[in-house]
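Contributing new records

If you add data, match the layout below exactly. Sequence lines come first and carry their own label; structure lines follow with theirs. Keep one chain per record. Anything else will be rejected by the validation script.
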Amino acid sequence: MSRRHFGTDGVRGVANIGLTPELAFSLGQAAGRLMTQLAVEPRVVFGRDTRKSSPMLEAALGSGFCSSGVETVTLGVVPTPTVSFVARTCHFGLGAIISASHNPAPDNGIKFVGHDGRKLTDELELKVEEIMGEAFEQRPVGGRIGDFNFDREALSLYLDHLEAIVPERLDGLRVAVDAAHGAAFELGPEILRRLGAEVIACGVSPNGVNINDEGGATKPHLMQEFTRNHGAEVGVAFDGDADRAVFSDERGRLLNGDRTMGIWAAHYQERGELHPPVVIGTVMSNGGFARYLESRGIALERAPVGDKYVSQRIDATSAPIGGEQSGHIVFPRRGPTGDGLATMLEFLRVIKVSGKPASDFYDAYEAMPQVLVNLEVRDRATWRTPEVDRAIESAEHELGEEGRVVVRASGTQPVVRVMVEASDFRRRDQATAGLVATLERESGAREKSRTDLTDGLGD
């Protein structure tokens, strides 16, 4: 059965056009009926980001769950990982997040996590879509209709969970925070102050349409400048739903997900606490990062892009950490999904315990030249022609063992992503030019954006 609504990270679309209240209602009703079939606790916990469309979609989604007899509890505006935590610790059968993460304000999304806090498997997402097409004849009535309640009491448990990550506390540390006018605009600064840090914050004035607009994890230059200009020792930027975090050293240099994982893994290896010595990255992880880990006797295993797939490899290998350049990092002892606030505290704990400034970690390794080109295509299902395959094979042959090529379709947009990594910038750019030209000629692709990932961010 083909997927009609779910992409790689839930259901995404322009709110009120691609992602309508009617669709949200149908998703909620079908997911609620699936909960009945699976005999899980008939309670679902909600969280949403700061987009103007989020309350509208939450109301529609919640109505769908209630119509299937499932009790709905909303936490209001909270980070995505908060929902995962509450779902797995407070006896909920399902969690639902209304957010389009790092996408612009007109977009929105719906994604589900199970009673264990993990994102739903592809099989369960397909089952939801299947139920959406079936008649619903035995509807609950009277007292069997689900309640819809607002309750933020569980947030105190989540903050306690975060506080325990840094038993040394953060007194004396000056931290710059960019919350992207998103879901962490309250809890991000709050947990830092609770741990004794001095906080300078921006991106904490959401108005419904400015989420991810000025800065955040996908536009970290604002956080980098903010950190340097305000004399902070560390800067952190979250994305719209705060499941990712990236950092700046005191000199304003970016520490992306690769560098964050490298710093963390090396620190705990030196303490004899990295068991097993394995880090899970993705096909986008920089070759310089891979060589750095290898030089320390730490294995890098690559998963497909997406923290869901990173989590699966963590489960298979028992790795203590895994993640992406973008700042989606999973610490399995903290939870099964990416949590930007937990990532922030794990990183700050290393800074605090080591007694070293963040800049000391930046030069641990040199990243390989790497670029990501996003190309808009008419149809993400038909872009790969035999000529495109030949171009990919040719580029891989030319680069040999001194480079990599990853060409893949986005799971949420009509976009093909071309990543090229090489031993030097000339070879990287030469291979990229050939691949982009072939895609433009063969599939009518048009270049949308180009990002130097040498020390930048993946998607």
